[in-house]
Amino acid sequence: MAANNLILPQSVTMQALIAKGFLKHKDVSAWDGWNVTVLITTNEIDQKTALMNAQDRDGNRVALLADGSVQFLN
Q1: What is the pLDDT of residue 28?
Q2: What is the pLDDT of residues 16-56, one digit of tens each?
Q3: Residue 19 Cα to chain centre, angstroms
Q4: pTM of this prediction exceeds 0.90
Q5: Of 10, 13, 37, 55, which sits most exposed with the smallest number of CB within 10 A?
Q6: What is the C-alpha separation between 21 and 15, in angstroms, rounded?
Q7: What are the sequence ranges of the domains in the chain?
Q8: Is residue 64 helix, strand or coil?
Q9: Angle at 23 between CA 45 and CA 36, to 5 degrees
Q10: How far apart (Å, rounded) are the C-alpha atoms in residues 1 and 17?
Q11: CA-CA distances (angstroms) from residue 61 to 44, 66, 71?
C-alpha cells in the first residue's frame, strides 16, 4: 500500500489480510471463528500497547500486547 502511495489504515482485519494475499488461511486457521483485528499503527514505546485484538462468537475477547503477553478482556 505504501509503495502505491496509499494511506495505511490504523487496523486491518485478518480476513482482509487473507483476501489481499498477505496471509494464507491455512497459516492462521487456528483463528477460525474469531473476529481478529491487527493494529498497524501502535505506540512502540508503550509495551502494553495492543498489537492484535480478537473476539470469539461468545463475546470473549483477548489482546496480544507489544510485550508479547496475552490479556483476557472478559
Answers
A1: 95
A2: 999 999 999 999 999 999 999 998 866 666 777 888 999 99
A3: 14
A4: no
A5: 10
A6: 10
A7: 11-72
A8: strand
A9: 60
A10: 12
A11: 22, 17, 9
